[in-house]
Amino acid sequence: MAGDLTGTVTFKGTPPAEKEMTPIKDDPNCSALYPAGLPMTHFYAVSASGGLADVVVSIKGAPTGAAKSAPVILDQKGCIYSPTILAVQTGQKIIVKNSDPCVHNVHTVPKENEMKNLVQMPGGADLEFAFDKPEPFLKFQCDVHPWMFAWVSVVDSPYFSLSDKDGKFTIKNVPAGKYTVEFAHRKLGTKTVEVEVKADGATQDFAFEAK
Amino acid sequence: MNSRYQPALFWFAVLNAVATFLLIGLGGLVTSHEAGMSVPDWPTTYGYNMFLFPLDKWVGGIFYEHSHRLLASIVGLLTTILAIWLWAKDARKWMHWLGIAAFLLVIVQGILGGLRVRWNLDWLGVPHGAVAQTFLVLTCAIALFASRWWKNSETEKQIPVPRGLRSHILYVTILIFIQLLIAATMRHQHAGLAISDFPLAHGKIWPATTPEAIADYNAHRPAGTIGNPITAFQVNLQMVHRLVAYLIFLGVTAAAFLSRKKLGGADWLTKFAWFWLALLSLQIVLGAATIWSNKAADIATGHVMVGALALLTGAVWWLVAARRTRI
Fold this sequence. Notes:
The complex is a heterodimer of chains A (211) and B (327).
Chain A: E1 2-12, H1 28-31, E2 56-60, E3 72-77, E4 80-82, E5 85-89, E6 94-98, E7 104-109, E8 117-120, E9 127-129, E10 135-141, E11 149-155, E12 160-162, E13 168-175, E14 177-185, E15 189-197, E16 202-203, E17 206-209
Parallel strand pairs in A: 1-16, 1-17, 3-6, 5-11
Antiparallel strand pairs in A: 1-13, 2-12, 2-14, 3-4, 6-9, 7-8, 7-10, 10-11, 14-15
Chain B: H1 7-32, H2 60-89, H3 93-118, H4 125-145, H5 148-152, H6 163-187, H7 211-219, H8 232-263, H9 268-292, H10 297-325
Helix pairs in contact in B: 1-2, 1-4, 1-10, 2-3, 3-4, 4-6, 4-10, 6-8, 6-10, 8-9, 9-10
């Protein structure tokens, strides 16, 4: 007996202003990739209807299971990580690509897992990462380009999801029962809600408010 | 063996000391730009022999880290030549061993830097910084011992320096070394500024370090701050750094006035003490500017270099005073 937990994460209020990523100018190889102007940070990805992306939604104390088989892709493109927020299960592979015409080093800065710092030349082979222990927002950084960061939440069960650009999320096949659901945003913090998932699923929306 | 002044040896020792000082500056740039891990391999650079690493790849953080490694190699080479030169040409046995000590220290320093990268241990940056300062003092001491003045002072009459004044200078110099250890610990936390205002600290004379206060500091860090979240330890450490800075400033001010009183204003050790005080004044301004600029890399690096000069000035002052007093 299992159902899907779905919902929408929204943001109430006015999000802090994003900033132009001016340090990109420091490397001509990178700034040349932006002839029309430098990109902006996107710490608060809020849609026109208020949907908040990049929120890791996970079920606390959910049964663990085999790692999801499909690897997730983390690309370095335009001297920024894409995407900047990811969620994976413990043991699930992360494939890191370098689509840029310049070198990067892929440096993980974990608190619970093993650190790695690997070279990736332009056109170089993909790199593989996997983490054994759960850890929220484990940082990936490039020290060659000190503005480049990505954060990967490692969850110890298959029952998690990342809200999309409209704030929507779906956690599939959750065994029926009562759970604590966690909503984690890197800048806005972590909140929990009690939810009962029935055989036909459940819906749980959540709103973060401007600090 | 030659017991006379050897200009070539002296100037070579000076070259080594200047290269070492510049190396400390480059090391400061590496940490100020958070570029220490931008070259993940060592002793190779992105798989290349470090001396053959293509120029077009010296970009971003790689530029600072790779330049630091190359200059370190040059200093290693200069120190090796200096050690051999001293052993072969200087008549003083103790100078032979000083050359060997410099050689061993530069090897240890290179290995510490390499392991810092290979093992990614932030704390190894602290002994790396401490050895750098010790090595700078050692290379400058060798240059001083090889100088014409040092040789001539053996036979020329010298004005002795009172013991109390020498002790005062020594204690202040040791305090500066301790301050540099505190500073190296702060830099190698890789957390940016733990306190982002000056002369107050988070708006107070002594900031709160409760978990709630720390969470609030982290939530309101200046725009553009990169690095790990700050902790109560880091806030307290910066406060200790500030207090020790004030103590050193008082100590150096006293040193300048004591020198004038005991040696007279015309004595060059007194003038050197005034120069020391000017350095300390500049250092405090640079420290404040480091905070006001949210740790701008060039200002923070200037703070590192003037700190090294302050230590060196105290050490050289004490060595010259000891020589004049024949201890």
